[in-house]
Amino acid sequence: MFDTDALRLIDAVARLGSFTAAAAELQYTQSAVSRRVAAIEARAGGPLFERLPRGVRLTPAGATLHRHTRDVLERLQRVNEELAAIHQGTGGRLRVGAFATANAALVPTALKDYAREFPGVDTTLVEGLTRHLVDRLDEGAIDVAVVSDYPAGLDTPPSIVLEPLLEEEFLVGLPAGHRLAAQEVVDLRDLRDDNWIEGARPGQNLMLAAACATAGFTPRVSMRVGEWTGKLGFVAAGLGVTLVPALATQGMRPDLVLRPIAQQAPRRTVFAALPRAPLPAARELARVLAGAAGRMAGCTTPSPTSRAVWPPA
Known about the structure:
disordered C terminus; 8-stranded mixed sheet; about 40% helix; D-Maltodextrin-Binding Protein, domain 2; alpha/beta; 3 domains; Arc Repressor Mutant, subunit A
């Protein structure tokens, strides 16, 4: 019924009690204010201001309209402030995705640092496989994701940009009482007769098979488990050994040990995935993630063009 300019005019006249003062505040002429108020009153169906010898005061109808006017103007002000915060990266909502082992330490560390720097951003997290996170990012369901090229490389649509965060080696996970647990470095050939815990998802066995092939044997796989936490549980129980990414060591349990591999160790690259036109808040989180990645034990900083793939060509 009334546009924003009309509401601001009503508010100014009501607050200041004068057409002349409202005209000065809004940079109108006094006659223009009088004409505009008369037009508003005609649309409202009756007088909104009682004209006095000096100034004006609200009628009951004017007081009702002014109360609602203040509500509308305050809401508009909040909208403007929230939009500005989103455009500046200091407010709004940020939807983050990450794969499981990134949530052991990398993502929590980064989100803690991020919340300290940008307390006005409401951050939510969803965990998933890299291929699912890439799909959700492409669909606009999340704003930024932490993904990796394990187990079978990383294929992304043109709408997504990948920024390398770190490269990590895979270590061998052994039960704490294993015969090789005291060694500083483990030769995979010494594990040719051990049971191996393998990944349950397509492609997860490629890295293990390639690493063992380099050592000259085919691993004897006794169990297939999807998540790293589950694989580590089976290893700790003495049911086998497995390969473990360095990121998973951040939450390592005391009843197993991780040792570097004597042969060329499998590696994977972890990326921040962003839309080509990311939210400023997503752009800032990618920066904070890169800083946190540089402090992760057992990881190195990749080159900006790094796209590691295992097994090597």
